[in-house]
Amino acid sequence: MEKQAKKRRGRGRALERSRRATNAAQYGLSKKRAARAARRAENGLKPKMVTVPGGDRTARADGLPQQAFRRDRLSAHYREQRARQAEYAASLAEHRRDRARTVAREIIAAHGPVLVVEDCDIRMWYRLWGKRLSQTTPGMLISALAVECDAAGGRLVRASTWSTALSQHCLCGERVNKTLRDRAHKCGACGLVGKRDLVSAALAAFVRFADVDDPKTAYLDTAASRHAQITCSQALEEALRKSTTPSPKPPRRSGRVAVPRQHRETSAPRTAGRRNRATPDESRPRDHAGKPGPRPGRSPQLTLW
Fold first, then answer.
1. pLDDT of residue 129
2. What would be one Pfam family of this protein (predicted)?
């Protein structure tokens, strides 16, 4: 993601340089260039020609630009780069939507079609963490979860954070106050220690509603959570201590995949029966073109996109 963001910023700077070079009369000199021009004028030297001015756009007294941006002359290279940037942005948005749908299907396949999430204002998250939050797209994931739950016959229910306060409670029912910086849960009453997010996710299973359509009617069933803690104490503590950070994937390198060397007289037993494409020491099947193969089975709980 860091590499993609760096490329996107580079494309934006290239477009800005192209616009400034084509419409040099609409921009002023930068502070550094203006100081150099003043020194050259004092020494009686000729002013240097600046092809790409780095100053502000010339504006009127009311602050509006003298010439509208739509009237700027654009080069063919600028139009081509702008089209490529728009295509890249569209493909990136589609990739994020597909990733949100994939993660939503995996969550529903593991935890069922009835889920409880906190009723949070994602706009406040953007105020706290800025544009970095767009790389994870939490709002898109919640929308995908709602669609997948409805398609699987369940429902995505929202619980108010004021009435439940999942991150400020323990499974035993005691309230454990934590700041946003505290990511570990330590209860002084029962001694439960675990990850803050995992403890909140476990408590979400014990949220009850007086009215399912109203998130403010949600409350935490501490008796049920305490009973579950006593029944599954050892397994629950081990599960809550696991890290929520995904393990880093090994870096992908360019080149061919390493395949063990085989003899010419024998075929590959691991790949001959799993794919229709022939290995280097096998003959190509005659009926491979145009023959419909069996489709993999899909779970009835998952929707098709």
1. 81
2. Cas12f1-like_TNB
Q: How many angstroms separate the CA atoms of 214 and 71, rounded?
A: 52
Question: Which residues of the chain are under the pLDDT cut of 50?
Answer: 245, 255-305
**Per-residue model confidence (pLDDT) at position 269:** 41
Instruction: Tell me phi and psi for residue 148, to 5 degrees.
Output: -70, -35
The whole-angstrom separation of Cα 179 and Cα 62 is: 46
Give pLDDT, residue 94: 92
CB-based burial label for 199 (10 Å; 0-12, 13-18, 19+): buried
End-to-end CA distance of the chain: 25
Residue of 118, 108, 104, 200 lying closest to 154 (CA atoms): 108
Residue with tokens 């009215």: 211
Task: Write out the H or E segment, with its range, that includes residue 17.
Answer: helix 2-22
What pLDDT does 234 receive? 78
pLDDT of 1: 65
E-only strand ranges, the chain: 114-118, 155-159, 184-186, 193-195, 207-209, 218-220
* Cβ-proximal residues to 169 (8 Å cutoff; 6+ apart), any chain: 175, 176, 203, 220, 222
In angstroms, what is the C-alpha Rg of the chain? 30
* Burial class of 192 by CB neighbour count within 10 A (0 to 12, 13 to 18, 19+): buried
Burial category of 292 from C-beta neighbours within 10 Å (exposed 0-12, middle 13-18, buried 19 and up)? exposed
- The DSSP secondary-structure symbol of 57 reads B
Supply the pLDDT for residue 251. Answer: 54
Contacts of 255 (CB under 8 A, 6+ apart): none
Structure tokens at 276: 């229709």
Q: How far apart are CA 220 and CA 233, in angstroms?
A: 19
